[in-house]
Amino acid sequence: MDKWANVDYELTDGLPVLKDAAAVLICRVVSTNLLPTHHIFTAVVEQAKNGNGEPLLYGYYQSHLKDSVKNAFDEYKKNDVIPQVSASRSEALPSPGQNEKWVCTLCGYQYEGEIPFEDLPDTWTCPLCGVTKEYFEKRTV
Prior knowledge:
By secondary structure, this protein is an alpha+beta fold. Helices cover 18% and strands 31% of the residues. The chain has helices at residues 58-78, 89-92; strands spanning 9-12, 15-18, 23-34, 39-50, 100-104, 110-111, 136-140.
């Protein structure tokens, strides 16, 4: 699918940029984490430029765009592009206590060290995104 086909853009340093962008960030991806519902890219900002457009604020999205975006997504799903899951998700989940891991809520990194997570010093940080222990939560994976 050509995501740029119906959007006004121009090339900047060989990259497509929205013509009315509020800002342009050129980043170098350092890691990718594929989750069941999202892909998380951790990146380093290499360049940042101001644009001419106005920023899209969350309040504006909620009051002006949310319904049309939801309707467009519902229409997209009708075309059977997104696979439907027939079995209940709970059937595939292990029982409590099995396969529990401490997972970074920012990037999805799963701690698998030999030291129990609770015993790590408070200064310990996620090796992927650099956040502290407070961003980790125990999950069944």
